[in-house]
Amino acid sequence: MKDELFREQLKSLLIEYHLTLEALSHLTNISLLWFTEVLEKKSTLSALSDEQLLTLSLTIEMFRVGITAIKDDERVLTIMKLLIVECGLKLETFAAYANVPLEEVQLFLAHPEQVEVEVKYRLAVKVMFLFSLFKDSISLI
Fold it and tell me: Which ranges of the chain have pLDDT less than 70?
C-alpha cells in the first residue's frame, strides 16, 4: 500500500464513516502519533513493521469493504451458524435469550426476509452478545 493511497483511504474513513484516529490506533496497536504524523506527511508506511503493516491493511479493508459488503441478515445468520457448529448452541438457546418463539428463529434461518424487524433486532443483539462470550474459543480459520 503506497503512502498517498493509504492517506486517502484513511481520510475517507475519518470523513465518510466518522472513525477516529484513536479507534484505529486502539484496534491496530499502532501509535496515535504515527497516524497523526502520516496525515501530516511527517511519517510513512515504511515506519511500520511487516506485522503492523499487515494488520493495518486488513483493518482498512474491513472498514472500507467488509462491513458494508455483507448484508446484516447474512452476517447474523453466519454468526448463529458458527455458534451452533463450533460451540454446540441450540436454536432454543437463541429463542430463549431473544425471548422469541422457536418458530421465529427457524424462520429467520430459512427465510430472514420474512421475519419482522423487531425479531431480527432481538436475535441480532443476543447473537452478538453470545458471540462476544464465545469468541475466544472459536476457531475462525
Answer: 1, 140-141
Q: Write out the H or E segment, with its range, that includes residue 135.
A: none
Distance CA 62, CA 72 (A): 15
Q: Please report where in the chains the cell 474459543 appears, as a residue.
A: 137
| Residue 136 per-residue DSSP state | G
Q: 140 phi and psi, to 5 degrees?
A: -90, -5
Would you state the cell numbers that stand for residue 86, as one nine-digit string? 463450533
Give the pTM: 0.74
Q: How far is it, in rounded angstroms, from Cα 41 to Cα 90?
A: 52
Rounded distance between C-alpha atoms, residue 51 and residue 75, angstroms: 27
